[in-house]
Specification:
heterodimer, A: alpha/beta, six-stranded mixed β-sheet, four-stranded antiparallel β-sheet, 7 helices, B: alpha+beta, 2 domains, 10 helices, elongated
């Protein structure tokens, strides 16, 4: 699903954001990518989305080899995953419904299917009643859930959540994590990028720790613990 | 692309034009101002050209014929003159016609000419020659002079040369002005559109990250740009032609007694409107769409 082999990323100004990163995330996994601010998490995410290209090394995401990916293939790479951004990235001029439907429209899906699917994902995140609202009239937690609904709209096999609890209150954070766990339980791979150590350790999931651009830890879930939250 | 997607994107373009109506109005206003300046300059140019053409066509050359020749010879000379490339018309004036014309112009002294009729007529039979292109005057004079039986050719050649020079300069300056204004309009409109796109760069960025192709993102902006461009073209056509019509009416009042000349020289709205409409519509569509595309490129490259 996601494979990094000896990946280096150095920005033009000389900042070595990632150094010799090797990791492999399989289908159906739930993984936390943990690291403090400036550790290289954002670069990791940018490389997966091909917002930035690696300086060297090999990256494969959902079958797309990003080493020499052609520009016109990038939209198809991005459609193969759903991303929940920390700042939600909702289009302010579109309603909740339109924001979610948009992710399906770009994939040229029939209008009747869009109507059905949007209705379903909005009910999944509990926002059916807000479908005609504009993002600016929603709370942070609600916007986060719209972003998740949009990420789920085109049924991707991989969901990436960037600091999903960063802009919402603790109660909402738990609710969001429970939603992500539920999504993972039906076979969707979930990667949560976070700096919150406690949040990552609250669940019995694999944790990849990045520090100063290198992978310093890769802890797999304890086989004997239950799948849910610890303690 | 599915038809439903096309309809959606088209609608999205119109919707976002309404949602961003302040910027759309700014683009529309800038485009209209540019088109009006370019349009009025263009109309002035075509009319000055038409005036110069008319003035040029008023100059006739006159071929005086050998007095010893018969009427049949004169007719055959006429055929030879008409056969010269560039000669549009050759009007035969017999010696008697020339005398009548002259005595007619003399008014009360007309009787003095009565003694000059018949064999005593000292005037030449002549051909008044009109040519299609005043620039060819010199060559045509040479050829007419070469026709056997033609004695002298009179032509206001220096006057024609002056007209041609004036016309050349008017064309050069006014078309230069139209081109410069066209380029300035393109730059101004592309900057205005760039502002519109800049204001929505985040929206474009989001679209990129949910996997929209460049074509998909461009389409609504493209529709928006084309609609604004077309609207500006139609409004400008109305204003320019309306303004031109009013100016023409005022000109007719001002040049009372010269209506015939004004009508011959000035191009009427009925002749101009298809060109103005087509020109402005195409200009608007091209500027609106290409301006949008060029302004978007920077934000699509993520």
């Amino acid at each position: 699903m996601i494979r990094f082999e000896h990946v280096y990323k150095t920005y033009p100004e000389g900042n070595e954001a990632l150094q010799d990163v090797n990791l492999h995330i399989d289908k159906g996994e739930f993984v936390f990518v943990l690291g403090h601010s400036g550790a290289g998490k954002s670069t990791f995410l940018k490389l997966i989305l091909h917002e930035e290209a690696a300086t060297s090394g090999k990256i494969i995401v959902n079958g797309f080899d990003l080493t020499n990916i052609k520009k016109k293939r990038i939209p198809y790479l991005r459609r193969s995953m759903g991303v929940v951004f920390q700042d939600f990235r909702l289009i302010p001029s579109m309603t909740v419904y339109e924001n979610v439907a948009f992710a399906m429209r770009v994939t040229n899906v029939k209008e009747s299917e869009i109507v059905k699917r949007v209705k379903y994902v909005l009910s999944l995140v509990g926002l059916s009643h807000k479908k005609d609202s504009y993002p600016t009239s929603l709370s942070g937690g609600e916007q986060q859930r719209v972003a998740l609904a949009r990420a789920l709209a085109h049924s991707p096999k991989l969901i990436i959540a960037d600091e999903p609890t960063g802009n919402i209150d603790p109660e909402m954070s738990i609710e969001m994590m429970e939603l992500l766990t539920a999504i993972n339980s039906v076979g969707t791979t979930v990667v949560v990028v976070t700096h919150e150590h406690d949040l990552a350790h609250q669940f019995n999931k694999r944790i990849i720790t990045i520090d100063h651009g290198t992978v310093v830890g890769d802890d797999h879930p304890c086989k004997f613990a239950k799948g849910g939250r610890r303690g | 692309m599915r038809w439903s997607s096309f309809v959606y994107l088209f609608g999205q373009g119109l919707r976002s034009m309404f949602a961003n109506r302040v910027m759309a109005l700014a683009s529309l206003g800038v485009l209209i101002v540019c088109m009006l300046i370019t349009g009025f300059t263009g109309l002035l140019t075509v009319n000055v050209n038409s005036l110069m053409d008319w003035l040029g066509s008023q100059n006739e050359m006159v071929a005086m014929l050998d007095r010893s020749l018969s009427e049949e010879d004169y007719q055959s000379i006429g055929k030879q003159i008409l056969g010269i490339a560039g000669v549009e018309e050759a009007e035969y004036i017999s010696k008697a016609d020339a005398l009548n014309q002259m005595s007619g112009e003399m008014g009360e002294y007309a009787e003095l000419f009565s003694e000059l009729e018949g064999e005593e007529n000292p005037l030449y039979a002549q051909y008044n020659i009109r040519i299609t292109d005043p620039a060819q005057t010199a060559q045509i004079i040479e050829q007419v002079e070469g026709v056997q039986g033609v004695e002298i050719v009179h032509s206001p050649e220096s006057l024609i040369r002056t007209f041609l020079n004036v016309q050349r300069w008017v064309q050069f300056i006014s078309w230069g002005l139209v081109i410069v204004l066209g380029v300035v309009s393109s730059v101004v409109i592309s900057n205005t559109i760039r502002l519109t796109v800049f204001a929505r760069r985040r929206e474009i960025n989001i679209m990129k990250f949910v996997g929209a192709t460049n074509g998909f993102i461009r389409m609504p902006f493209f529709v928006e740009g084309m609609t604004v461009g077309l609207l500006a073209g139609l409004i400008s056509t109305g204003i320019v032609l309306g303004g031109y019509h009013i100016i023409l009416q005022k000109a007719m009042l001002y040049f009372q007694g010269w209506e015939d000349v004004v009508q011959q020289v000035v191009l009427p709205v009925s002749e101009l409107w298809p060109w103005v409409l087509a020109g402005f519509s195409v200009f608007g569509l091209v500027l609106g769409s290409i301006g949008t595309m060029a302004s978007m490129r920077k934000y699509l490259d993520v």
